[in-house]
Amino acid sequence: MDKKMLPKPCKLSQPNLFHNELRDMLDSRDPLIALADTINWGVFEESFEKYYSKEGRPAKPIRLMVGLLLLKQLENLSDENVVMQWKRNPYYQYFCGFTEFQIALPCHSTELVKFRQRIGKEGIELIFKSTVMLHGKKSEEKQVIIDTTVQEKNITYPTDGKLAIRMISHLHKIAKKEEVTIQHN
User: Fold this and answer.
1) Cα(23)–Cα(61) distance, integer angstroms
2) φ, ψ (nearest 5 deg) of residue 74
3) CB hemisphere CA count around 86 (13 angstroms)
4) Taking the model in full, what pTM does it have?
5) Helix or strand or coil: residue 35?
6) Which is higher by pLDDT, 99 or 14?
7) Residues in CB range of 53: below 8 A, 6 or more apart
8) pLDDT tens, position by position, 24-57
């Protein structure tokens, strides 16, 4: 695994005189805003810092990477799509800790794979546990109902032979319609 340096902590900066804060442009009642403000992001930073070295290239912020993984699961997106949607969606950017709208991709989608590998099963379980704890007592159900039925689809998978027969049949129909005589050898 490539050596990555722990991301530098975000410094409080002077407000930009030419751009509004991202938060000021968003609907504060949006569920992603509420969720972003509820999650204890520091837990992830403290837990995951052990996976980084003191030297090497600076890594992407941990909040960004955890936020992208959460958004990926919340919205049922692929790695590629969550990265693209992040670029287009200011609510996603706020959720991941940004204070100004960004026009560039936050990272390449393969960095999410590397991040998951870096934090391993233990890190993924921490993210899951933290999100479950957000629901408080509601997450402590005594009974969980899971639908495990599988509906078989009435489809047949194409094989080369089936495709060839369909193609020949289709060509015969076209030839008949166009009044082309077919000679069999």
Assistant:
1) 19
2) -60, -40
3) 30
4) 0.67
5) helix
6) 99
7) 3, 4, 5, 6
8) 889 999 999 999 999 999 999 999 999 988 888 8
Burial letters for 38-48: b for 16+ Cβ neighbours within 10 Å, e otherwise?
ebebeebbebb
Q: CB–CB of 96/41 below 8 Å?
A: no
Q: What is the largest CA-CA distance in the chain?
A: 84
The Cβ of residue 70 has, within 10 Å, a number of other Cβ atoms equal to 21
59, 124, 45, 107 alpha-carbon torsion, rounded to 10°: 30
pLDDT value at residue 12? 41
Neighbours of 67 (CB within 10 A): 27
DSSP state, residue 134: T
- Cβ–Cβ under 8 Å, residues 112 and 60: no
Tell me the Cα Rg of the chain: 26
